[in-house]
Amino acid sequence: MNIYLDNSMIFNRDGMQENYQTREDELRFMGRVMFESIGEQSPELESVTFATEDGKNSGTYSRARTGADPNDRKAWAKEKYVQWLAGMNDVYESMCHAEITAVEVYRNCLPADPHAYVDKVTSPAFGELVVTINDGPWMDGIYDTPASSFVSSNMIIKINDKAAVGEQVEKLTVIARDGEDTSTALREEWPQ
Predict the structure, then answer these.
(1) For the purposes of burial, counting CB atoms within 10 Å of the CB of 163, is it exposed (0-12), middle (13-18) or buried (19 or more)?
(2) From CA 116, how far away is CA 112, in angstroms rounded?
(3) Pairing relation of β-strands 128-133 and 171-176?
(4) Range with the poorest average pLDDT among 58-67, 80-89, 138-147
(5) Which helix (H) or strand (E) holds 34?
């Protein structure tokens, strides 16, 4: 879906943006609001782009689907990983001055964040993900709260923001510190 705005649009009218946020971020957020309004009832909706008529400013919010068969556990887990990265990109692209297409890009920007050390994402059953985090500079730092709880809640929200009805993660378990730090987030606890 493409929505065009008048070229005279005034950006950051309320002054709430962070200093690193751009017009693209504001337009992408407008796309997210549209998804939240109609996306649940329209699973066929793949992306929403808001742009000025002259095309100089645009922002797109998308589901980041890979076309994975939900019965193929490995492919479905990969799609959820891609959706998580896309959600991280929506938030951090401007701050990191780079498109977040791989966890290493995020790690270069925020090396002390446990999200930057996601190593493996698997799906043991339909609607479930298990995420493993490697040890790293996040340990004993500001984000070690415990890390598994911080990452599990954040990941389930970011993934389910991108997923259509029937494609959402119901249960997401994060394992860190070789199993000493484990947490499970349930969709019912983190409704979108």
Answers:
(1) buried
(2) 8
(3) parallel
(4) 138-147
(5) helix 23-34
